[in-house]
């Protein structure tokens, strides 16, 4: 606090400054170094706004838009950025506003617009002359590609940002976005040089917001590596800075890490308080990884305390958040693929027109020639047709790839949640008309979170792929098999009675238990809890089948896991794998 007070005293007063442009530039440089001082300067600028030139007033509007985005007012900041881009007439401010607008659209989950803008900004990079604007463009492009799961592209643009640091700026932000890309690509540990470099450069630059980001990333890695005490010490260290800057993503991340650390240390009461604080920071309809992990902490705390009803309620919220978060990741990836496909089609169209123009020019110059000219023309025409056929083939192949991605789960290769629901609806309508029958089996891997915590997420992915392979060996081609989210799977059995479905489910349960995962000398034993719902009892409404199957699944978990439970009200339909 003494250092902050010293900064406030030594900053020049706006009232005595005649170089308004210089004062605006100094204010902009304080955004993440000393955010309280930045806010104070904005208030000073607005008091004297009438004395600013037109260009200086546009600069002030840009600083206001940045602050609105920092405070989470994304709709307001988007409108301000668009106004600057369209009407300021300042190419530098327009470029910086475009870079921040890209981040704004991504935060609001408007991924198709964001990636379309990213494509336009990528093509504008060669003509971006202002060093700060260029640095902001490549930094935000790195973050967008990181969000789309394109780790190598994200690292490439982070390196570009690091190699184009403008005068007066530091390499804090480029080092930080590179560390974030490595983290999302599962290429980072708490002792990695890239992470320590991000911490050191941000501390040296006195970038408090950037320093907090890097240290929170380190805290998350400590948790992944089973070192909750280090996470708690780190959070206590940066707590004052977090309270001063009051940046919502940092506040949520810090509370979640506290909840997870307390839970690992066995302090259930503090873990519950911290997790509930994360819930209080979000709206009732929000979907985020923070919420998903907070509900997971609450579920495990209540389960340890023996509060079965509360644990089940929190588990249901966790499942909903997990499904929503996975769907959001799929939407990001699909939006990226769509934007790339649109860009490819535009490039192909331009290339095709260019070829046609060249052919016309050749035709005009060869019209007066003999038979050899005609032969050359025919040869060129055949080459053009072959080129167009090749281009169409490439476009069709891209479309087929996009279609596969929209229906299949990226990790396991089976149907995803959305396609499973639409296909199941269609099949149930057919069965209802022909007076047939069907059964829905809901499967959940037991203690999957412990696999991730003990062996890491890479082993978790191997377990999911192994589980799918085992289940597929036991299923027939007519069965509809999908990953519904996280470690949960769904199977629709067509023309099957309840007793047949129970037998099939029991066979699947036994097959999983008898097929442990072996990888690199490590052996992971598996079991599943299974819920079964039948149209004989529930009717052909998919939503009710899902509810009944999920309810049976929860009863299987409460009964001790590794068992099959049917959609009846009695406990007699519970079958243990043993």
Helices and strands in order:
Blueprint (H helix, E strand, L loop, with lengths): L1 H9 L9 H10 L5 H13 L6 H17 L3 H14 L3 H17 L3 H14 L6 H17 L3 H13 L8 H13 L8 H12 L3 H17 L3 H18 L2 H18 L2 H13 L8 H17 L2 H59 L4 H37 L9 H17 L4 E8 L2 H8 L1 H18 L5 E6 L2 E7 L3 H16 L3 E3 L2 E3 L3 E7 H4 L3 H17 L4 E4 L7 E3 L2
Parallel strand pairs: 6-7
Antiparallel strand pairs: 1-3, 1-6, 2-3, 4-5, 7-8
Helix pairs in contact: 2-4, 3-4, 4-5, 4-6, 5-6, 6-7, 6-8, 7-8, 7-17, 8-9, 8-10, 9-10, 10-11, 10-12, 11-12, 12-13, 12-14, 13-14, 14-15, 14-16, 15-16, 16-17, 17-18, 20-21, 21-22
Quick tags:
71% helix; 8 strands; disordered N terminus; 24 helices
Q: Would you kindly provide a brief summary of this structure?
A:
By secondary structure, the chain is an alpha+beta fold.
Distance separating the two termini: 63 Å
Cα radius of gyration in angstroms: 29 Å
Low-confidence stretches: 1-17, 341-354, 569-573
**How much is the average pLDDT?**
82
Q: Indicate the proportion of strand residues.
A: 5-15%
Number of E-state strands:
8
Please give the order of strands in the largest beta sheet.
Answer: 2-3-1-6-7-8
Number of helices: 24
Amount of helix: over 70%
Largest sheet: 6 strands, mixed
Description:
It is a single chain. The protein has 578 residues and is an alpha+beta fold. The chain is 71% helix and 7% strand. The protein contains 24 helices and eight strands. The protein has helices at 2-10, 20-29, 35-47, 54-70, 74-87, 91-107, 111-124, 131-147, 151-163, 172-184, 193-204, 208-224, 228-245, 248-265, 268-280, 289-305, 308-366, 371-407, 417-433, 448-455, 457-474, 498-513, 535-538, 542-558; strands at 438-445, 480-485, 488-494, 517-519, 522-524, 528-534, 563-566, 574-576. The protein has a six-stranded mixed beta sheet with strand order 2-3-1-6-7-8, with helices on both faces. The chain has a two-stranded antiparallel ribbon with strand order 4-5. A hairpin with a 2-residue loop joins β2 and β3. α9 (151-163) runs antiparallel to α10. It is globular. Residues 1-17, 341-354 and 569-573 have low confidence and may be disordered.
């Amino acid at each position: 606090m003494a250092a902050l007070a010293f900064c406030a005293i030594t900053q020049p007063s706006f009232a005595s400054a005649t170089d308004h442009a210089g004062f605006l530039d100094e204010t902009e440089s304080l955004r993440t170094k000393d955010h309280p001082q930045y806010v104070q300067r904005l208030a000073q600028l607005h008091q004297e706004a009438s004395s600013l030139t037109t260009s200086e007033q546009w600069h002030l509007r840009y600083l206001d838009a940045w602050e609105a985005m920092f405070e989470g007012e994304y709709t307001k900041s988007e409108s301000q950025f668009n106004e600057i881009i369209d009407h300021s007439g300042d190419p530098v401010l327009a470029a910086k506003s475009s870079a921040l607008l890209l981040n704004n659209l991504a935060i609001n989950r408007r991924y198709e617009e964001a990636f379309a803008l990213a494509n336009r900004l990528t093509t504008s990079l060669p003509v971006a002359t202002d060093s700060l604007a260029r640095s902001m463009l490549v930094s935000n492009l790195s973050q967008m590609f990181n969000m789309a799961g394109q780790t190598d592209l994200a690292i490439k643009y982070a390196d570009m940002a690091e190699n184009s640091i403008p005068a007066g700026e530091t390499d804090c932000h480029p080092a930080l976005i590179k560390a974030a890309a490595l983290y999302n690509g599962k290429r980072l540990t708490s002792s990695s040089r890239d992470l320590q470099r991000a911490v050191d450069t941000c501390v040296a630059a006195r970038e408090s917001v950037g320093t907090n980001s890097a240290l929170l990333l380190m805290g998350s890695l400590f948790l992944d590596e089973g070192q909750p005490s280090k996470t708690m010490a780190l959070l206590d260290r940066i707590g004052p800075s977090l309270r001063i800057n009051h940046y919502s993503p940092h506040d949520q991340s810090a509370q979640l890490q506290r909840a997870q650390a307390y839970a690992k240390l066995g302090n259930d009461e503090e873990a519950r308080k911290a997790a509930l604080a994360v819930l209080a920071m979000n709206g009732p309809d929000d979907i985020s990884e923070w919420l998903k992990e907070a509900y997971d902490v609450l579920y495990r705390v209540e389960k340890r305390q023996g509060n079965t009803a509360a644990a089940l309620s929190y588990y249901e919220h966790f499942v909903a958040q997990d499904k929503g978060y996975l769907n959001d990741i799929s939407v990001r990836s699909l939006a990226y693929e769509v934007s790339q496909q649109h860009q490819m089609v535009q490039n192909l169209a331009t290339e095709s027109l260019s070829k046609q123009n060249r052919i016309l020019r050749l035709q005009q110059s060869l019209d007066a020639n003999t038979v050899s000219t005609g032969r050359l023309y025919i040869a060129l025409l055949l080459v053009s047709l072959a080129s167009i056929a090749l281009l169409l083939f490439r476009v069709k192949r891209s479309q087929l790839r996009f279609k596969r991605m929209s229906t299949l789960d990226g990790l396991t290769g089976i149907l995803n949640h959305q396609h499973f629901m639409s296909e199941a609806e269609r099949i149930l309508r057919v069965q209802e008309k022909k007076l047939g029958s069907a059964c829905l089996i809901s499967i959940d891997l037991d203690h999957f979170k412990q696999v991730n915590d003990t062996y890491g997420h890479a082993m978790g992915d191997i377990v999911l792929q192994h589980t799918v392979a085992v289940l597929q060996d036991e299923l027939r081609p007519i069965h509809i098999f999908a990953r519904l989210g996280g470690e949960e799977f769904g199977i629709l059995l067509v023309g099957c009675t309840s007793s047949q479905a129970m037998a099939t489910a029991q066979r699947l349960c036994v097959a999983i238990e008898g097929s442990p995962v072996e990888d690199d000398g490590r052996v992971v034993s598996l079991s599943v809890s299974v819920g079964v719902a039948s149209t004989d009892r529930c009717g052909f409404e998919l939503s009710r089948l899902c509810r009944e199957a999920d309810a049976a699944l929860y009863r299987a978990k409460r009964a001790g896991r590794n068992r099959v439970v049917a959609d009846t009200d009695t406990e007699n339909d519970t079958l243990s794998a043993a």
